[in-house]
Amino acid sequence: MSHSAFTGVAEQARLVAAGEITAAELTEHTLRRIDELNPTLRAFLRVFHAPARAEAAALDEFQAREGRTRGPLHGVPIAIKDENDIAGYPTTYGGAAVSTPAAADSEVVRLLRAAGAVIIGKTAMPEFGIWPFTETQANGYTRNPWNPQRSTAGSSGGTAAAVASGMVAAGIGGDGGGSIRLPSSYCGLYGLKPSRGRVSSAPNAELWRSLGTLGPLTRSVLDSALIYDVIAGTTSGERWSAPALERSLVSAVTAPFVPLRIAVSVRNPAGGAKADAHTRAALLRTARALRALGHHVESASPNYPNATAAFVPQLVGGVADEAARVDHPELLEHRTRGLLAIGKAFAGRRVGRWAERQGEKISAEVNTFFDDFDLLLTPTTPSAALPIGQLDGAGTIRAMAKALPVSSFTSFWNVVGNPAAAIPTGFTPDGLPLSAQLVGRVNDEYTVVQVSAQLEAAQPWSDKIPAVHATE
In this predicted model, what pLDDT tens digit does every residue of 249-261 receive, in sequence order? Predict the structure, then answer.
């Protein structure tokens, strides 16, 4: 089959719609790649061989019968992070403590199926997404396709490994402190955390209180925009809802150029973990590319209020919410139990609501920065991918000490709710991906996507192939 493993979502959908490949052929190709690469990378916890084949066959029958596709993702295999319900399978949150199958699909999975996607499997994550390293006692290490001795970050590390290696063109992740952007940074992907309430968390009313949101990890900006246009929107039972997008995000990819004011900052919102030399150099190259495109670019930093008191209670409260759903609490990891014990005093709803109000105050303060600038460019992570085994032998306190620097540039934007994207910016001398974070105004994913696409055209990244990949 002439199909490339690294063809994106939009192109795969076009090929199926044009009859150049069937959904069944594309799904079979995807399953072969997963079977070949997953034993090394451990991106998937469950692979839906028979169900995916049946879904693809049904889509082909629909296309032949109706003379049209079911939707914009018709026949495209999509991976799902294992914090999302898929009917008939347990939602394990990356651990071993859940055994009861979900009764129904989550809203995001439902929307993907309605658009014609083939749900191919569930991807690995650290238990409850707590750590920015996809390493668990139940499932071992998830390895980085660019170097299997390096971490994928987390918590959407399984999704990142699956997409970066070409097992799938896209997968769903979640981001409560950087968990879409951090794995995108380590694995050379595009990952946009949308505004709070942009994407449904149903059947849950929220994801990590006000911090979390769901969204895709992809190789290209267009592919992320296409998926967001499918999954945007919330249901009536959810706590957070963003205003509906006035224009499709796909249209942002080819929107006419408009010069913008863009600030560039290496300042860490948490006050520590300076970006290393490779990350700073890549950031400055990206700033020069923006300037060459015609944007006004200057060095400027927001006045970052301390967000710790707003973030930590919501993180611990969110983990406590999810831990309360498990079937076998005795099988929770020791680090998870330690975090819940340490944070018990401020995991309750009363403290959580106070933390949310603090976040609202911080958001109002920091977003005055966007009165003067349209976008902010920062590092995504302080460095390229760290070695695997970051959690080996670590208790809760030591794990927290290792985790905080990795997410120090990203977690602030979960507290305030702004959209923020990880954008590939090149490689270290030893071939590890580098990344910059592009932050927009609240509810302005459109501008983030528009400028992300301009950068992708100016310094392409989706054609770069990692070290671990199967031959065609």
Answer: 999 999 999 999 9
